[in-house]
Design a protein that fits this description.
homodimer, alpha/beta, Rossmann fold, 2 domains, seven-stranded parallel sheet, five-stranded parallel sheet, 9 helices, 30% helix, elongated
């Protein structure tokens, strides 16, 4: 049976070239939505926009991990949705370890010293022996946990119920959220945006952290009560925050985050979807699809991830 | 047999408290140089200054790795000199990985973007698949190599002759220095200061690097031809440099390094001697000393390390 693929991505040309190179069996390309397109590959938003013009759609492969536009309560669900996982763990680990080291090693302060020609031997901190808490331990969390153990950290994980990573020293669930937060040096949110995770990083959770704690968000902006975080930083209830994701992206110019003290931001750049990685995943999934086998990383529309 | 220990360090009180706590057999403390002091623990410079007043000295434990003041050609050599090793590897790894990630992740650029309220999604780089070259592979180099492999890098090592770390993919020796440098993404100097290593980071070596290469120096400033490095940075022959050590420390205010483009500096703070770590090493060595066994990390006065 022939399959027809539509690519809906800003990197369409790169994806097409790499997929053509792989000479996949039974695969043809479409250049626009059509009645016979049964596979789509791309970013969630353009896929969402094209859904009504894809009556024969059987499988959509998202090139991102986050697929919120496709799993809303009113969304079409009569197709298989797979997202990108597995490829982001290493990149997220680099981001998290990078910003933890920037914090401990006082990398920004040293640059200020240099600008002031001030030879300041203020001692550096270390990751060794510190405790990190992971809000959410999926494939990304497991990879961050592995990196944290490499640097000699203690690792706590807060999950709905699963305890899959062996690099997590201690798991917490359900109502044990504040207990999980107690005494953490670093809190990392990796949770997706769902009804259950909305504003899970609340005033109560931030108050439960020690005042020297650093908060990092690489999950979703919706998981954070933004006003609570701003207040915690303004009142030095925690030492700092590093945010890669926000409730609204791009972050509006008038948002207080831009100038909140001890807040560093990046621009949803922590774990980019490298075309080569995603293509590899697509090819693997296509081969399964063509042979009628189950696909990797299927999204549960009900759960929303 | 009784032993008498003199501590010559700015952290004397901390060291004394921790050593007293260990209740070491046969050990007494001296508070100043005396004829019956046979052990000294401290920084190399005050040890050097006290040598003439310590006729009975048998063993000196340096709390630093670098012991240049004690191994010059005219220096006294009729005692056992041990330095601090083993404890710095993990700290150095943190420093190196931290600055490599700051470079790849454009951590400083993102801060500028934030100040300008500019949502810039410029893609981030990654350590995965990059190649690092280690000038010197002792205990610190081995630990950095281990961290580099963790992040998926290729690792080259340049040594006098030893090939001790299994985390180094390929070793180079002697006249193969420029071959070693070819195609490196990152060059890391960890060499001590000896006659053989002086200005090993020369114009020729810097010219052999790709223009996107980053140079990091955590070894000794003497290993770098400072003028050659300044020229390489001014002419964009390499992408950047991160220096923790310098020919003269503290770096004089008029030194061009302070304002050389793409040069980041720290202030000999990459791997601090934490009192707890050094005390542990001292106690281990003291027990061997008291029992007439060989000590760990003995310095070869001839080689200078």
């Amino acid at each position: 049976m022939k399959h027809k693929l539509l690519i809906l991505s800003q990197d369409e040309n790169q994806y097409r070239a790499l997929i053509e190179e792989a000479r996949l069996v039974n695969l043809e390309f479409a250049t626009q939505p059509a009645d016979d397109v049964d596979i789509v590959l791309g970013e969630p938003k353009p896929i969402k926009a094209a859904l009504d013009s894809l009556p024969a759609l059987i499988w959509a492969q998202s090139i991102w991990a986050g697929i919120e536009p496709l799993v809303g309560p009113a969304s079409r669900r009569n197709y298989i949705l797979t997202n990108a996982r597995g490829v982001f763990g290493r990149l997220m680990s680099e981001y998290v370890i990078g910003y933890l080291l920037a914090h401990e090693r006082k990398i920004f302060k040293r640059l200020e010293d240099q600008k002031n020609k001030s030879w300041d031997e203020t001692e550096t901190g270390t990751l060794l022996g510190k405790t990190i808490g992971l809000l959410g331990v999926g494939s990304i969390g497991a990879e961050v946990a592995r990196a944290a153990k490499f640097f000699g950290m203690n690792v706590r994980g807060y999950t709905r119920g699963s305890e899959t990573s062996k690099h997590v020293d201690m798991y917490y669930h359900g109502s044990n959220l504040l207990e999980f937060a107690e005494g953490l040096d670093y809190l990392l949110n990796i949770l997706p945006s769902t009804v259950d995770t909305r504003k899970i990083v609340s005033t109560a959770l931030l108050n439960a952290l020690p005042s020297h704690a650093l908060f990092i968000n690489v999950g979703r902006g919706q998981a954070v009560d933004e006003s609570a975080l701003i207040e915690a930083l303004n009142q030095n209830k925690i030492a700092g925050a590093v945010l890669d994701v926000f409730e609204r992206e791009p972050l509006p110019k008038e948002h207080p985050f831009w100038t909140t003290p001890n807040l560093l931001m990046t621009f949803h750049t922590a774990a980019p979807s490298f075309v080569e990685d995603i293509t590899k995943l697509f090819i693997e999934n296509y081969k399964s699809f063509n042979e009628g086998k189950p696909l990797k990383y299927q999204v549960d529309f009900e759960k929303g991830y």
